């Protein structure tokens, strides 16, 4: 849904565009109009779905910028979240010059007191420090019209209930209250509702991976080998529309230029590019003018493209939820997809963690050799030649052709053509990707970094009675090989005739790839 349709002012729409948001996320689309209308709202949606902007935008719309009182209060469970939230609200409210301040424990209180004297209209704070300011009378909340309890599940888990009640006592009765949370155990809803008036409950279902549509593979490789291995896979799999995910912006740049140097039609997006450039690249990708998009997780948020055939996790995501977000870009709308995850030997624990969440075992693939990659490329080139011959008006070129044939051996001419249609192998164009710090070694049990998306069971409603995965490998006919390549006739990396594939949604059943991974049912 477009932000334009949500009833926000021009200033805010501009800020949204500057922030790089193309479309409102589902929780935003549903809750923003309600909050604008003055409703109390309980908003429940998975981590990373943009809940902050879901309340920030209508708050910014509703506050009176000429009024010097605190009009909106956002309570956050942790200092980090409070800071992040303040930054986001500040960013979105910059055009309207909204004054947004943050208070949290463990920081110099005198500085905060000074900033509170600057007449902020919006305050973000952690419960303890908010109470501190209230007691010192450095924060007056009697003009607050909007209250947000953000990350409510986390807040109550941390035992902030009493503090929150004390804070709420300071607020006018006539106010609007919003509660946002990733999970909503009955206890939280019960408590939350006490502070609210006839709240509307908006619940966005977590996206599940339709795993039976996605073949999920992993490849063990050392960090410095990944690039060459990946391009060889590109050659044997000839993916049509591919997203390569990587952990850092630097890698986005290096990988996209490396791919271009080897003749792939690739580009990268990350937060440092201008909005204009990002939109440009996204549009090229959307319209098939770009085969490979290299992106960071953050840059890829909000990207909604349906025909992605392959997702490559150049770097394994640290967080299993990110894996679901990433891989969920393919296997959409009933089409088959492939995901490939590179794992360095010491990252295997992360892989297992992901498998636990998705309840699917990824199948290992061995990197193809350069020769195998070339064989595949030649197969694709042969198809391409056939295409070219079919669509060429022979007469037009007859004279020049005759001249060339007099000069060269026919075989040499064809070889040159094939050479032109295949990509340079890694030995010809060396590409070096700067090493990044590896993920911290995970010691079996996952440490809890203040996240709240675990244990909520958001992804686990597959009716699985628990325990164990099942993995099914259907060995079918066709020219399946261990690199997960498609049937020969659909090999074409060069783009252009993607329609041929897209029209053929069920191509795998024709015996292209050999593996099927199914969720335990
Ligand atoms: P949540 O609170 O649901 O966990 P956040 O509000 O922290 O999620 O948002 C996660 C990320 O998504 C942030 O980086 C934010 O800037 C970004 N984001 C929010 N809304 C959008 C949108 N409509 N399109 C793209 N990115 C968005
Ligand atoms: Mg949040």
TrEMBL record:
Residues 32-202 form the Helicase ATP-binding domain. Residues 424-521 are annotated as: Disordered. Residues 213-374 form the Helicase C-terminal domain. Its main location: cytoplasm. GO terms for molecular function: ATP binding; ATP hydrolysis activity; RNA helicase activity; RNA strand annealing activity. Residues 471-500 have a biased composition (Basic and acidic residues). It is an enzyme of class 3 (hydrolase). Its EC number is 3.6.4.13. The keyword Cytoplasm applies. It is found in: Cytoplasm. It comes from the Bacteria. A motif (Q motif) lies at residues 1-29. It holds the Pfam family Helicase_C. Keywords: ATP-binding, Cytoplasm, Helicase, Hydrolase, Nucleotide-binding, RNA-binding, Stress response. It catalyses: ATP + H2O = ADP + phosphate + H(+). Oligomerizes, may be a member of the RNA degradosome. DEAD-box RNA helicase possibly involved in RNA degradation. Unwinds dsRNA in both 5'- and 3'-directions, has RNA-dependent ATPase activity. HAMAP family: DEAD_helicase_CshA. This is DEAD-box ATP-dependent RNA helicase CshA.
